[in-house]
Amino acid sequence: MFCSRVSILAVAMIVLGSTIAMAKPTLLSHQVIAQSPTSVPHPNRGQSGGWLKDLNLTSQQLQQIKEIRNQSKQQIAQKSQEIRLGQQELHDLIAGTATKEQVRGKYNQIKLVKQQLADTQFENTLAIREILNPEQRQKFAEQMYKKNPPSPAQHN
User: Fold this and answer.
1) How far is CA 45 from CA 28, 91, 141, 156, in A?
2) CA distance 37 to 101
3) Could you tell me the sign of the dihedral formed by the alpha carbons of 37, 40, 46, 48, in that order?
């Protein structure tokens, strides 16, 4: 009986640890740069007004970026909320009497929504990239990697 409880606890810790690790921002989820309000300076980027001002964008480019952000704003908010609710449900399943299959199903559901969110954010980044000139793209990439430098595996 004791061994069974220890096994359940170990599985719960692994699942929760994996969920927490997945919730931790990755390179793709940091593409939310495109979703950041333009009036709020990004940490570690000085008080110049944020990453947009650092790129010296034209008014047309600024308008295009706003449109990109507005087009997916609701979808991103919905997916983020879905992830938060799913993580709470997963917590409740682990703490309760749910079967291993139910817990795994919820975990996989959360993982899928996180991937969808990351994909949306990445598509926004690509759309923004398309309106930038080569110099702006260089600065954009540098700013994205300041906070999240690529791991050595990403260089291969």
Assistant:
1) 20, 36, 14, 28
2) 40
3) positive
By the 8 A CB rule, do 62 and 132 touch?
no
d(C-alpha 110, C-alpha 20), whole Å: 11
Q: What is the pLDDT of residues 1-21, one digit of tens each?
A: 444 443 444 444 444 444 444
Q: pTM of the predicted model, to two decimals?
A: 0.62
The identity of residue 66, as a single letter, is K
- Evaluated on CA atoms 142, 146, 147, 152, the torsion sign reads positive
Tell me how far CA of residue 13 lies from CA of 54, 75, 135, in angstroms: 43, 31, 46
Write the pLDDT tens digit of every residue in 37-73. Answer: 333 333 333 433 477 778 899 999 999 999 999 999 9
Residues present in the chain in total:
156
